[in-house]
Amino acid sequence: MSPTPVTTSLPTQPASYSWEATDEEVAARYGVPLERVLRFDLNTSPAPPELAPRILAEGAFEAPLSEYPPSDYRRLIETAARVYGVGTDELLVGAGADEILDLCAKAFLPPGGRAVVPAPTYAMYRVVTEQRGATADLVPRLGRDDGYALDLDASRAAAAEADLVWLCSPNNPTGLPEPEGAIETLLDVIAVDALAAGREPATVVLDEAYAEFVGASLVGLRERHPNLVVVRTASKAYALAGLRVGFAVARPGTIARIATYRPPGSVSTVSVTVVAAALDEPAAMEANVARVDAERDRLTDALREAGWDVGPTVTNFVLVDFGSAERAAIAATGLLRLGLVPRTFPAGHPLAHALRLTIRDRAGNDRLITAANEIRPELEAAGG
Ligand SMILES: Cc1ncc(COP(=O)(O)O)c(C=O)c1O
């Protein structure tokens, strides 16, 4: 087991997703008690909303567990439509945002097709593209000083040749939203170029997994752009990653195209019931966002004091630049020895010199701050 995951990408094999080591693997390899292992690699929240254990204890689910979930997920769809401000025919439920991404690849990417992936970004866009037998056109983002924003000209040129464009705002793993107006501009020029070329515009899938942390969404752009699919999730701000619920939001015709590929019952009755309740009672989600807001600056300042180069973020994670892959590996190993699991990036990745770390609760973040100070001499000995 390496602290750094390796993505296998042989010519005959599509990219596949790589996880960090499990809690048990970390405990065994680094001699840490299992209960001391703390995950900073998954951008999840420290605890589910209280309504989750309450509903589970009551066992009052929408349908008996001996039956399949309602095929139209009606109650969940009605609740989500209200929360996102869209029609019930403009939504599709999936087993997490990840299933939605997979369904979008199936619906909009023909085998042999082409998808634009502004890199670095969430690994699954490339994975689902290549697993579809399509080509991922990796378009480098602007540099760190430009907030890793989309390269609009390069993305426009690539989109003119593509079936699908994967966007993520705020972007994982760089932590910032696209600049105001950039996505709207890209959608507009894609439409103009497609009209001029007499072809269908590429479908634009905009992953808003972290939208609640900024309190803004571009879901309204679907009205003018039927080729836009917005992706949302219950995994991040709603703190329900284990239930695996995500949504596609788009114009009804676009949703119908995705729905062709939807498997029956991939989202459990338990998940449907709890997530509908969580969407209906947003107080816990809002408190979770407030926790992240309160901890973001404190954690960033303390890590900077420990000598770490922490980038700006609007999300529930930070990206730390260690200057070289060697120094990032030293930091990763140092954290793992203390039971803290960072998100690493493999050799050759544009962020191989960085680690991504979830903003946890105060006590969890304190452990990270203490660890950063403990690792400091080792990092200083390794030079800058
Ligand atoms: C940008 C982005 N999209 C999607 C996902 C997956 O979300 P879900 O748990 O809903 O499948 C993640 C999880 O880290 C993510 O960061």
Q: How would you explain this protein's 3D organization?
A:
With 384 residues, this protein is α/β, with parallel strands linked by helices. It has helices at 23-30, 51-58, 74-84, 96-108, 124-131, 152-159, 182-197, 211-214, 252-259, 269-280, 283-305, 325-337, 362-381; strands spanning 38-39, 91-94, 114-119, 135-140, 164-168, 203-207, 228-233, 246-249, 309-310, 317-321, 340-341, 354-358. It is 40% helix and 14% strand. The site of pyridoxal-5'-phosphate (PLP) has 13 residues, from helix 4. Pyridoxal-5'-phosphate binds next to helix 4.
Protein topology:
Blueprint: H1 23-30, E1 38-39, H2 51-58, H3 74-84, E2 91-94, H4 96-108, E3 114-119, H5 124-131, E4 135-140, H6 152-159, E5 164-168, H7 182-197, E6 203-207, H8 211-214, E7 228-233, E8 246-249, H9 252-259, H10 269-280, H11 283-305, E9 309-310, E10 317-321, H12 325-337, E11 340-341, E12 354-358, H13 362-381
Parallel strand pairs: 1-11, 3-4, 3-5, 5-6, 6-7
Antiparallel strand pairs: 2-8, 7-8, 9-10, 10-12
Bound molecules: pyridoxal-5'-phosphate.
Residues 43, 96-98, 122, 168, 172, 207, 209, 233, 235, 241, 246 line the site of pyridoxal-5'-phosphate.
